[in-house]
Design goal:
Elements lengths: L6 E5 L4 H11 L3 E6 L3 H13 L4 E5 L5 H15 L4 E4 L14 H28 L3 E6 L2 H5 L8 H21 L4 E8 L10 H9 L9 H13 L7 E4 L7
Parallel strand pairs: 1-2, 1-4, 2-3, 4-5, 5-6, 6-7
Helix pairs in contact: 1-8, 3-4, 4-6
Length: about 250
């Protein structure tokens, strides 16, 4: 897909999402982003993309609210005149010990990581059909892609990201006749959480075969690869520095 004149919507465009937005803009796309609480970061990103000559806008949305998912998709399509690419990156990444799990903790993760991905995708389809096709890129995780939970305390997250893989495959089948390609990125050690200590950061690097964290640009490269391809759909790609083979 030639990105010149195309419009992309990224949900959760902070940190890694901002890197993806910048790379899309460099290729000629106009980029809308959504955010939950990070208004300053979103506004700064929009200003940066506009200064580079691209159209851009940011929408505040609580994606635990089902109606918000359709609202931001339809708003972006209305404001930009079209929608060609949906990148569903919004995610809740919070560990919860098993004995403290309850329905509220379950829904906090499932509703954002899985349900909002489904609802945004469904809302995006009519707009993409008008353009004769499009791309939907979802976000899973390297652990469910590798078929092992590995770390205790992440039950809702693991289930949600496993569900994203299944959703990606099912959507790919349903939407293939519309030339809407659906794929998932499964990140590994890309950017450390802000609370990560230097010792923890180095420990992860040491157990990663490539010996380092990836950085947001590596995710942007994977997203662009899916956008560029006209014949890959229903795939989940690990971007993990080889963690799954060690």
């Amino acid at each position: 897909m030639d990105l010149k004149g195309k419009v992309a919507l990224i949900t959760g465009a902070k940190r890694i999402g901002a890197d993806v937005a910048r790379e899309l803009a460099k290729r000629g796309a106009d980029v809308a982003v959504s955010y939950a609480r990070s208004k300053k970061e979103a506004d700064d990103l929009v200003a940066e993309l506009k200064s580079a000559g691209r159209r851009s806008a940011a929408y505040q949305a609580d994606l635990t609210d089902p109606s918000a998912c359709a609202t931001i998709v339809n708003q972006a399509a209305a404001d930009f005149g079209r929608l060609d690419i949906l990148i569903a990156m919004a995610s809740v990444y919070v560990a919860t010990p098993f004995d403290k799990l309850n329905l509220a903790e379950w829904e906090k993760t499932i509703n954002v990581d899985l349900r909002s991905t489904f609802l945004c995708a469904i809302a995006a389809v009519p707009h993409m059909r008008k353009q004769g096709g499009g791309r939907i890129i979802t976000f899973s995780d390297w652990l469910p892609r590798s078929g092992r939970p590995r770390y205790a305390g992440w039950l809702p997250y693991y289930v949600a990201k496993g569900g994203v893989m299944a959703l990606t495959e099912a959507l790919a089948l349903e939407l293939a006749p519309d030339n809407i390609l659906v794929n998932a990125v499964a990140p590994g050690p890309i950017l450390a959480p802000p609370t990560t200590t230097a010792e923890e950061h180095q420990k992860v690097a040491d157990i990663t075969p490539l010996g380092r964290w990836g950085g947001g640009l590596e995710i942007a490269k994977a997203v662009l690869a899916f956008i560029d391809s006209d014949f890959i759909t229903g795939e989940t790609l690990r971007v993990d520095g080889g963690r799954h083979v060690k």
